[in-house]
Amino acid sequence: MDDGIGETAWRCLGRRGMLYSECESFDYARLAPGASLDGRGRDEIEEVWFVLAGEGTYLDAGSGARPVHTGDLLICPQTARGHWRAPFDTPLELLLLAMMPASISRSLPPRAPVS
C-alpha cells in the first residue's frame, strides 16, 4: 500500500484454517513515517496488538490518543474503534493477533487438525 507518504506493508502470517484455533489471523504491519492505519479492518473480532519497533499513537474513538513504544501490548475488545499513526520521522512496526470473541466461538463446532 502506498498512501502518498511512503510505503506501508502488511503481511498475513497465518489464517484461521492454518491455525486450528479461535484465531482469525496473525499479521505483521509496517507503517511508513507519517502513515496511519485503521485498527478495525474486520468486524466481529477482538485484537491484540504488539509494538515490535518504533513509537507512535493509537487513537481510540472512546478514550482518545495513547502513545505507544516498542514492547507495548494493546488489547482491543470487539467494540473498540481506533486507528494507528506513525510519527513523521520513523516507521512503526506492529504484530496483530485477531481473534473471534467468545460470544461467536462458543457457537462453533470444535476444530482440530486432520491427521
From TrEMBL:
Domain Cupin type-2: 29-96
Name of this chain's protein: Cupin type-2 domain-containing protein
